[in-house]
Structure formats: structure tokens, C-alpha cells
Amino acid sequence: MSHYADLSFSDEEVITLFLFGVMDKHREIKSIDEYADRHLRDGFPRLPSYVAYVQRLNQVADVFAPLLALIQQEQETRDPGQFWLSDSFPVAKAPSKAIGLRRV
Question: At the top level of its lineage, which domain of life is listed (predicted)?
Fold first, then answer.
């Protein structure tokens, strides 16, 4: 865990902010972070820096595939035969050995 990791901001909060941003039609992580900082800070007073948020988002990225599968399964039981198209929103991950080589 790097010095950017602020565990006072929970995984649930990281995921919630990401989903809020996507639902509000933000397609870049930077845009989601700026949106959260401007409009959601009251609800998330421990919002980490952009770098820390990206790091935490990368740590929970594996949650999104099963979450999408669960949502699709739930929708299928509510509306059988309904066609769903899911757009991917990749989260960039650097190889662990490249993290120490980055300059800020």
C-alpha cells in the first residue's frame, strides 16, 4: 500500500462515487473526481486526492464485472427477453513494477 492510500475513505464510498459519476454521464475518472469534489463533498467529507482516488478505484476494479452480472441477472428476472447492452468503462492499471517509476 502506498503513501497515497487513505483507508478512512471506504471501498463502498469509492464505488458509490464512481457509479454516481457514470450515472451523471461522466466518462473519465478525472471528470468523476472533479464532479465529486464540486457537488458531493458534503456527503463525502473524507474524499481523497485525485491520485489516491484513482489508486483506490484500481484496487476495487474487479468488483464491477460481478456487479454488472448481478444487475443483468436481476433485470432478466424483472423483464425476461429484454436485450441489454453494457458499455465497458476500463480502469487503467499500471504494472506494479511501473508504479515506483512514475514521476509526479
Answer: Bacteria
